[in-house]
Amino acid sequence: KQEVTQIPAALSVPEGENLVLNCSFTDSAIYNLQWFRQDPGKGLTSLLLIQSSQREQTSGRLNASLDKSSGRSTLYIAASQPGDSATYLCAVPSGGYQKVTFGTGTKLQVIP
Amino acid sequence: DAMVIQNPRYQVTQFGKPVTLSCSQTLNHNVMYWYQQKSSQAPKLLFHYYDKDFNNEADTPDNFQSRRPNTSFCFLDIRSPGLGDAAMYLCATSTFGKGGSGQPQHFGDGTRLSIL
Fold first, then answer.
1. Peptide bond preceding A8: is omega within 30 degrees of 0, i.e. cis?
2. What 3-state class would DSSP assign to B40?
3. Which of A33, A99, B17, B112 could serve as a FRET partner for B43 with CA atoms 20 to 30 Å apart?
4. What distance in Å separates residue B56's CA from the closest CA in chain A?
5. Which residue of chain A comes nearest to B98, CA vs CA?
6. pLDDT digits (tens, 9 = 90+) for B31-78
């Protein structure tokens, strides 16, 4: 059974800092990994999807990397802004190619 | 814009009174998912449809049912809501082909269900 862990569970940083969120998974036989953002009381917004053949994906100030062999992914946020404050979740395929397992999430607060 | 729309955004029902949540999509995706998310927890998959094929999770209570009358719509029925069913319910879609590597899941804004 796929298990996904995110560290840290919560993070508070001053505006402008670069930061890294971590995601680890137990079953490395995945074909992609997705990072999401969730604002309070809202649904999930897809940030980045990394296919297993890729090592990283970039979108604006976000960069996600994937190391299948070690069962890890990182989400790098450059020059953090207060608007980045949200919970960030990673998700990996599990139990069949149509389902995903979500990580426990990292709640990020960027202080102005 | 193509999107996933959930109605209503907030739903209040009485203990034991059946309730239906709806989800529609304009993405023409063949897979639709229903998740339950409780406060500070990760979304938990209840079931999903691949086209018309219904796939239930082993630990989804019988109290939860789903219908997908066509590609665009999917409904979540809770037959006799209990206090423990108060949560955010999220609908998501994705597209999958045989042998494909999968595409991003797209989520609606969710329906927050309260039980009185």
1. yes
2. coil
3. B17
4. 11
5. A97
6. 999 999 998 899 999 999 999 999 999 899 999 999 999 999 999 999
